[in-house]
Amino acid sequence: MPRATCPVCDAELRLSQAEVVFGRRLTCPECGAVLEVVEEDPLELEEVFEFQDDFEEDEF
């Protein structure tokens, strides 16, 4: 079973083989951070930052 460390809270995560796919998004059960698989071998996760656009298109 693949394991990774949450880059936000350092919790050890146990993932299924199906979850270890490049671009797959996961949620850390400890801190709730949204993580993305950025490398499959060796397994590496990064936090996903989703930005909201506060401007509407007609404001430009």
Number of helices: 0
Major beta-sheet overview:
3 strands, antiparallel
Q: In what order do the strands lie side by side in the largest sheet?
A: 3-4-5
Helix content: under 10%
CATH architecture: Single Sheet
CATH topology: Rubrerythrin, domain 2
Q: Which structural class is indicated by helix and strand composition? A: mainly beta
Short structural description:
The chain has 60 residues and is mainly beta.
Layout of secondary structure:
Layout: E1 3-5, E2 12-14, E3 25-27, E4 34-40, E5 43-47
Antiparallel strand pairs: 1-2, 3-4, 4-5
What does this structure look like?
Helices cover 0% and strands 35% of the residues. With 60 residues, the protein is mainly beta. The protein has a single domain (3-49), classed as Single Sheet (Rubrerythrin, domain 2). The strands form 2 sheets. A 3-stranded antiparallel sheet has the order 3-4-5, with no helix packed on it. Strands 1-2 form a two-stranded antiparallel ribbon. Strand 3 (25-27) and strand 4 (34-40) form a beta hairpin. The mean pLDDT is 88.
Which key features would you list for this structure?
single chain; Rubrerythrin, domain 2; mainly beta; 5 strands; three-stranded antiparallel β-sheet; 60 residues
